[in-house]
Design brief:
By secondary structure, the protein is an alpha+beta fold. 60% of the residues lie in helices and 12% in strands. It has a three-stranded antiparallel β-sheet with strand order 2-1-3, covered by helices on one side. Helix 2 packs antiparallel against helix 3, helix 7 crosses helix 8 and helix 7 runs antiparallel to helix 9. The protein starts with a helix and ends with a strand.
């Protein structure tokens, strides 16, 4: 059950009764009243989807229960939020170093390099290199990934950054 639904499910019947009566009695904004009524009419699955969408638009973690770090200024316009999310997805920050293939004569040098950059023993490093194409290290910053790729290329491996 989603976090949104689990926290607010007990309040839904009460809010439905209060929403229309309170809006007319207190003279609330009709736009906000309409939004509240539409939210209360959603099914549990739709509420779950809505809460995930709202968290994405506000740039909150999908799993966090608190709104720490989210400011109204950071929320911004829905269109600007979507454009910012696309830009963030376009800029890659973590790279995987993958050995595509290697020269048979350079196998020992490559195994030594793999052992140097990982905490693998001789047997594990040898098995890893022989499985090529294989990812040697994952989630590295661009500079570290490029440095590792250069070392492996110098040892005789064909390397790709993903």
């Amino acid at each position: 059950m989603s976090l949104f639904l689990s926290k607010f499910a007990p309040l839904v019947p009460r809010l439905r009764r209060l929403s229309t009566a309170a809006a007319t009695a207190a003279g609330e904004d009709p736009k906000l009243s309409r939004i509240a009524d539409e939210l209360l009419a959603l099914s549990p699955a739709e509420l779950d989807d809505y809460s995930a969408l709202l968290r994405l638009r506000l740039r909150l973690s999908l799993t966090s229960s608190d709104a720490a770090g989210a400011s109204p200024a950071g929320a911004g316009d829905a269109g600007a939020g979507a454009a910012g999310a696309e830009e963030a997805a376009a800029v890659k920050t973590a790279f995987d170093v993958k050995i595509e293939k290697y020269e048979a004569a350079a196998k020992i040098k490559i195994i030594k390099e793999v052992r140097a950059v990982t905490d693998l023993g001789l047997k594990e490093a040898k098995e890893l290199v022989e499985k090529a194409p294989v990812v040697v290290r994952a989630g590295l910053p661009k500079e570290e990934a490029e440095a590792l790729a250069a070392k492996l290329k110098a040892a005789g491996a064909a390397v790709a950054l993903e």
